[in-house]
Amino acid sequence: MQDVFKSQDVFKSQDVFKSIVTPAGYSDTEWKARIELALCYRMADYYGWTTQVYNHISYRIPGTDHLFINAFGLLYSEITPSNLVKIDMDGNKLDETPYPINQAGNVIHTAIHKGRPDIHCVMHTHNADVQAVSALECGFIPLFQEAYMFHERIGYHPFEGIVLDAEEQQRLVESLGKSNHTLMLNNHGVITTGPDVSWAFMRMYQIIQGCQVQLKAMASGAKLLQASDEAMIRTREQFEGGDAQAGAQVRLPEWPAYYRLMNRVDPNWIR
After folding, report:
1. Given pLDDT bands bounded at 50, 70 and 90, which one contains residue 18?
2. pTM greater than 0.90 (yes/no)
3. Which of 159, 219, 233, 268 lies at 20 to 30 Å from 133 by C-alpha?
4. What is the pLDDT of residue 248?
5. Phi and psi torsions of 87, nearest 5°
6. Strands, sheet with 189-194, edge to edge from the N-terminal-most edge strand
7. Spatial distance between the Cα atoms of 101 and 7, rounded to a whole number of angstroms
8. Which of these, 248, 257, 266, lies nearest to 16 by C-alpha position?
9. Alpha-carbon distance 246 to 200, whole Å?
10. What was the pLDDT predicted at 7?
11. Rounded to whole angstroms, what are the CA distances from 38 to 20, 81, 100, 197?
12. Beta strand ranges found along the chain (DSSP E)
């Protein structure tokens, strides 16, 4: 594996970030974390994965037990690095902000961050294609190479109502399991996770596309063609190990590309 794949530090590898100055009152680590998460919200809006002001994405500040989450009431297109809300692992706000945080987001995200310390970003959406698959008894069926990254990496959680009860937190963690990175919330939506924001976002992109393909293939009425278990495992390992991105400057080259895209869409989004 190339040394450059050891870190997804787009700030070191891309000239576009050389001009970023950390504002007073923030450490470099915190400001970069805020930018990463704000970009994730903006790109979720760009792809149309939003449900008005609902849903949520959280990111643990590297080296801390503090999280960032969206200010409840803002559209994803309004999220900036500075208006993200810092909370602790119990959902208590740690900075001055006029905005509340979504209680369901608090319950879901703090549960997963506490229950799986290896996870640093948790992304939740109610995308319509994902919701359709979440209501199928068969669950998610990976049918093409990108979808095979989810082979034996998805947990399922039964619907218990809007996630407002802290008693459901342990059950959420148990449903995710110890090695899965994606959790299908039955009759609800999906959660993708990762060691950083870029991984959680990439997985969300692929699970949504995987659900779209599954629904189209099932709607055709034809018999589904599936790869062998060995081929699916090999493909998953190619994604997890980095072979799928061989030759790229960074581990997930789509992520710095999204920075460049957002700078064109809204040159003032970093504020």
Report:
1. low
2. yes
3. 233
4. 79
5. -130, 165
6. 85-87, 67-69, 56-60, 121-125, 189-194, 182-185, 154-157
7. 31
8. 257
9. 20
10. 42
11. 15, 5, 17, 10
12. 56-60, 67-69, 85-87, 121-125, 154-157, 182-185, 189-194
Burial-class residue 107 by CB neighbours within 10 Å (0-12, 13-18, 19+): buried
DSSP tag of 128 = H
Q: pLDDT averaged over the chain?
A: 92
The token pair that represents 217 in the structure block? 């293939």
Residue 174 in 3-state DSSP? helix
CA dihedral 262, 268, 269, 270 (to 10 degrees): 110
CA distances from 120 to 57, 87, 168, 266 (A): 11, 14, 20, 27
Number of other residues whose CB lies within 10 A of the CB of residue 132: 14
CB within 8 A of 23, min separation 6: which ones?
31, 82
- The number of C-alpha atoms within 13 Å of 48 and in the hemisphere containing its C-beta is 5
**Element at 31 (helix H, strand E):** helix 28-47
DSSP letter string, 178-237: TT-SEEEETTTEEEEEESSHHHHHHHHHHHHHHHHHHHHHHHT-SPPP---HHHHHHHHH
Coil, helix or strand for 54?
strand
DSSP 134: H
pLDDT in tens, 200-234: 999 999 999 999 999 999 999 999 999 999 999 99
Burial class (CB in 10 A: 0-12, 13-18, 19+), 98: exposed
**CA separation for the pair 136, 156 (Å, rounded):** 12
